[in-house]
UniProtKB/TrEMBL annotation:
It is an enzyme of class 4 (lyase). This is L-ectoine synthase. Keywords: Lyase. It comes from Cellvibrio mixtus. Catalyzes the circularization of gamma-N-acetyl-alpha,gamma-diaminobutyric acid (ADABA) to ectoine (1,4,5,6-tetrahydro-2-methyl-4-pyrimidine carboxylic acid), which is an excellent osmoprotectant. InterPro entries: Ectoine_synth, RmlC-like_jellyroll, RmlC_Cupin_sf. Pfam families: Ectoine_synth. Gene3D superfamilies: Jelly Rolls (2.60.120.10). GO terms for biological process: ectoine biosynthetic process. The gene is ectC. Belongs to the ectoine synthase family.
Amino acid sequence: MIVRKLSDAGTQGRTVSADGWESHRLLLKSDGAGFSFHITRIFKDAVLPMHYQNHIESVYCISGFGEIKDVASGAVHSIEPGTIYILDKHDKHILRAFEEMELACVFNPPLIGREVHNAEGAYALTAEAIA
C-alpha cells in the first residue's frame, strides 16, 4: 500500500514546475503501479501548447476555469470543475487558464518524476521510462 499526502510532495522532491504550471507527482514509475498520478496547478493566464507524443494523459478539473483547443480540428472545449479530458490519440493541444486551475492528471506510461515539456510540448520517453 502506498499512502502519500499532497502537502508532503515538495519536501519529498515530488514537485516540478516550469513556466505556467506546477506539478505534484504523487505516484511515479518507481512505485510500480503502471501509471503516474499528479496534482497540477495551471497558473492564471497560462497558455500552454502541448503534444504528448509518448504518453496518454487523462485530466480531471478539480477547480478553476479554462479551455483546451484541439489543434488538429480547431475545436475548443471549456474546462471547469467536473470536466475530464483524455488525450487518447496523442492530441496536439493548447491549454489556456482563465483563472488558476487545479487538475488531477494520470499518465501512461508513468513519468519518472522530473520531466518538463520539451520544445514540442511533450515529455521525453527515456529508456528508464519504458524499462
